Amino acid sequence: MKRKMLFKGTATALVTPFTESGDLDIKALKNIVDFQIKGKVEAIIPAGTTGESATLSEDEQAEVVKTVVRRADGKAKIIAGAGSNSTHHAIVLAKRMLAQGADGILSVCPYYNKPTQEGFYRHYAAIAEQIDAPIVMYNVPGRTASNMNAATTLRLANDFPNIAGIKEASGNFGQIMEILRDRPEGFAVWSGDDAVTLPLMSLGADGIVSVVSNETPKMFSDMVRLCLKKDFSKALRLHNSLLDLMNFNFIESSPIPVKAAMTMMGLIEENYRLPLLPMSDIHKPTMKKILKDLKLI
């Protein structure tokens, strides 16, 4: 199997809207998919960690993915969240999400377990041996409490052509540059942090798996496309315009701020599942000002 580039550009790590009673808000989900398509993002990631997958049942994850696949109707790649800190469950989830019509899966590094580097390797190797579809690995030590290093990432990239790439959110530029320098042909590296997308793309990254594109799909995907064209001076202007929003999206645990912003924009209702709560009142005026300055409200 020859590795193909899954996408270049922007993939939105889509939030999951809930009703006040805590159920999936399918109507709002369809509307925000429309908003993403209109903004011309290259890919959408439903039921990932930004989509609060930790509090979704397996049936709900499948429903979210199926809804997004059908609503997008081929206008963007759909990469379904399918991660777990149980390797067996990660494989079960991946198979079920792919059965809903997804183009590939995003699988977060095992959290809490704190595997060794060999443990990381065997986890993703087991998934790759069972899944005949593109797999995106997701390294986010700030959430998982352990880091998959460059050597392990590159070993997996070289051994499994169906591992399409990695969403790198370690914040370790030395590590990411090593992956970019030594990766095999076709293995993609996507930024996992909105605010460092431009510098990482200047080093050769292929795009971003983004939170801010939930709020600004067009502006942010335009910036990323400018980076792909090596027009970094124009991209920098958009980057600077969005910097306050990119940073404020993490003033509280994500996706709390982005869902608060999307509520202000009239896209969803601000509902979460415990242990997440609505954004603190102290932060809402600042978020409102940022959105007004960007003419989003």
What does this structure look like?
The protein is of the alpha/beta class. The chain has one domain: TIM Barrel, CATH 3.20.20. The chain is built from 12 helices and 8 strands. Strands 1-2-3-4-5-6-7-8 form an 8-stranded parallel β-barrel, surrounded by 6 helices. The longest helix is centred in the C-terminal third of the chain and has 17 residues, at 232-248.
Would you summarize the structure shown here?
Helix content is 45%, strand content 12%. With 297 residues, it is α/β, with parallel strands linked by helices.
List its salient traits.
globular; 12 helices; TIM Barrel; 297 residues
Give the rounded overall mean pLDDT: 97
- Overall structural class, as computed from helix and strand content, comes to alpha/beta
Task: Report the end-to-end length measured between terminal Cα atoms.
Answer: 47 Å
User: How do the strands line up in the largest sheet?
Assistant: 1-2-3-4-5-6-7-8
Please provide the ordered H/E string of secondary-structure elements. EHEHEHEHEHHEHEHEHHHH
Find the CATH superfamily: Aldolase class I
Number of helices: 12
Tell how many strands the DSSP assignment holds: 8
Largest sheet: 8 strands, parallel, barrel
Q: Spans with pLDDT under 50 lasting ≥5 residues?
A: none
* Named CATH architecture: Alpha-Beta Barrel
Give the class-level CATH name: Alpha Beta
Structural domain count:
1
Task: Examine the coordinates and then state which fold CATH places here, giving the name of the CATH topology.
Answer: TIM Barrel
